[in-house]
Amino acid sequence: MKAWGVRGNRKAGLLMKEKFESVNQEKQQQMNRTLVMNLLRKKRLCSRAELAKLTGLKRATITNIINDFIQHDYVIEDGILEGEKGRRCIGIRINGEKYRILGIMITRQYYSIGIMGLSGEVYEERKYYLDARQNAHETMEDIKQKSRQMLEEYKHTDVLAIGIAVPGPYRVEDGEVLYITNLIGWDGVMLAKDMKEEFDIPVYVENDANCGAYAQLWFREEELYKNDIIYIIAGQGVGCGIISKGELLKGNMGLAGEIGHTSINFEGPKCECGNRGCLEKYCSTIAVMEKVQKRIANGEYTMLKSGCSFEDFKNAVRCGDKLALEEYRMACEFLAIGVVNIINQLNPEYVIIGDALAEVESQLMRRVVNNKVKEHIRPVIWEKTQIKMNDLEYNPILIGAGVVAAQKVFENPFQFIKE
Ligand SMILES: [Zn+2]
């Protein structure tokens, strides 16, 4: 009996070893595929020889990967490239016509739906304003209906995954929204589960600032990849996505980067989060418009009228309206204090600022923030920190929602194809 037992254990041990090795092999293959997909995304067009050189993988491994990709329509051969010693070789690129991603960006005032390629390129974006009379459930039904419409119109392509950006914290496992300040009724909405059940497509949810940071990373990779970067959204709320050495810093509950709720005045106005004098009470579009309305009501001189919109405010700043300019500069100065705090905490190399408030007068904001930050941090830190304004063509949050989903596809492309 004992002998049998020993032999049995040995056999089991060998089987285990084989299983372990094959799991490892599969993992390695997955990593190689991800590496090749990412290179093709960055390079746009690349030969097999160049892929082998850049990845350090054997030529035969690259040939196998590319063959698998071609078979599944992930990549196509396209054009002739000049290789080493003038040799002509076939170019490979990601098949943007076949597979797509649906990116959805939910904000406090509107939502956008974008049909995107696996490299994060936006083919079409549609924007819908939220109806203030609707509850979260009704809005979700609208989002589903508009998404279905988009999927229907692009049915000649296969949408592999959906990425959703939310303006507040969510629970990672099922994308349950925890809260969105200034948007009532969204607490407990099961975004990922709900959308997955509706469309039977994998759904990934990410915080809006994190999405913005991902987009910066994908589209400025050469410049930013190995660096610590912060992407600040100054819009209806204020938040930031933190990337350290190419990885997003999320924190224990995925709530890292909520700089909008760091206090810059402990006697300031009470915030929904429970804190007082939160940064976003001073430099969000909502806070700025509240102050503007108050000054109009006090009868101060301005081209703006009571009840004016943020678009009107933007126009007034650009026209040089004194009151609008004062409020804009003031918001930029407050934002700068938030930037100082985050620089002192995390010591990034790049701080990139984007979203609605930044878009009002981007260069003016850059100047005001730069001057203020320079005054408030140690010169040695200032010399090593660059503050930039977002200059991506499409909204980085929408792009980032797509990037979050595309990243998942890159991790294991074959898993996403429906037989
Ligand atoms: Zn707060």
Quick summary:
The protein has 419 residues and is an alpha/beta fold.
Describe, in plain words, how this protein is organized in 3D.
The protein folds into three domains: 2-94, Arc Repressor Mutant, subunit A; 99-212 and 397-416, 2-Layer Sandwich (Nucleotidyltransferase, domain 5), CATH 3.30.420.40; 223-393, ATPase, nucleotide binding domain (Nucleotidyltransferase, domain 5, 2-Layer Sandwich). Helix content is 47%, strand content 20%. It contains 15 helices and 15 strands. The protein has helices at 2-43, 48-55, 59-71, 136-153, 191-199, 208-219, 221-224, 280-283, 285-297, 310-318, 322-346, 356-360, 362-376, 379-383, 396-411; strands spanning 46-47, 75-82, 88-94, 99-106, 110-117, 122-129, 158-166, 170-171, 176-177, 203-207, 229-234, 238-244, 247-248, 350-354, 386-389. A five-stranded mixed sheet has the order 6-5-4-7-10, sandwiched between helices. A hairpin with a 3-residue loop joins β11 (229-234) and β12. α2 (48-55) crosses α3, α9 runs antiparallel to α11 and α10 crosses α11 (322-346). The structure holds zinc ion. Zinc ion (ZN) is lined by residues 261, 271, 273, 275, 278. Zinc ion binds at residues 261, 271, 273, 275, 278.
Residue windows where pLDDT falls under 50 for at least 5 positions:
1-6
H-E order:
HEHHEEEEEHEEEHEHHEEEHHHHEHHHEH
What is the number of helical segments per DSSP (H or I, 4+ residues)?
Answer: 15
Q: What is the makeup of the main sheet?
A: 5 strands, mixed
| Cross-sheet strand order for the largest sheet | 6-5-4-7-10
| Rg for CA atoms | 25 Å
CATH level 4 superfamily of the largest domain: ATPase, nucleotide binding domain
Domain unit count? 3
CATH architecture of the largest domain: 2-Layer Sandwich
Broad shape: globular
Structural class: alpha/beta
Number of strands: 15
Helix content: 40-55%
Bound molecules: zinc ion
First-last Cα distance: 48 Å
Topology-level CATH name of the largest domain: Nucleotidyltransferase, domain 5
Rounded mean pLDDT is 90
